[in-house]
Amino acid sequence: MTDLELYEEMVRLSRRGEPYTLVTVVANSGSSPRKAGAKMLVRSDGSFLGSVGGGRVENESVNAALAALKDETPRTLDFVLTEENGFACGGSMSVFIEPHGRRPLLVLFGAGHIGRAVAALANGCGFRVVVVDERPDCAVTELLPGADEIICATVADAFAHLHPDKESFVVIATPGHVSDFDAVRGCLATEAGFIGLLGSRRKREALLKTLEEEGFDAAQRTRVVTPVGLDIGAQTPEEIAVSIVGQLISIVRRK
């Protein structure tokens, strides 16, 4: 295994929004099994790539890496590799354990002016952004540099590719009420933790009335946050993006 393979795996996991931990030997002396600079990547399932020495050092490093991933706190482990401490190598070594957290998922329905602004800002704020739009001229990388993934499909078809969970965010800003409401219905059938709909208070009343008539109970209806975004008096697409992404960040930081 080369460092290049390890770095490529870091990039792959980061792009997929999957958490991992990087373990690096930062100091050593004597006949330690690995020298400073040796690295190991530990995935959330405990599998790993690379090595910081094997045996007990590696086992304890993997366990500490998983703990660091859970509490999102870096830490350093010091090993004195003498017989009285249960090692045979002699010498000593220290490893730094650095968790890289999961990027929160934002599914964005609609790649219009506001959708583009939200995608760009959310990506820059650490979200993994998936954009859905059925218009081929809108669902293009050139207009959506902040999107990690673009799905050119109708709202109904897109849900075959989407699996938002309780940690996921959804923002709906399609060109029309019909597709907006379809997206809301689709999201309510998932475990999406946040469902935000762009629109006026009149649109909110129409949506809630429609959902009630269709049999969605009060608990389901309250899952829809509309109008989405903080009330900062936003008017331009960029300002509206700030209000929306600011609201998402406030939720992420409170967890």
Automatic annotation (TrEMBL):
Domain XdhC Rossmann residues, every copy: 106-248
InterPro entries xref list: MoCofactor_Util/Proc, NAD(P)-bd_dom_sf, XdhC_CoxI, XdhC_Rossmann_dom
Top-level taxon of origin: Bacteria
Domain (XdhC- CoxI) ranges: 15-79
Transmembrane segments: none
Pfam family, one: XdhC_CoxI
Protein name: XdhC family protein
Native organism: Geoanaerobacter pelophilus
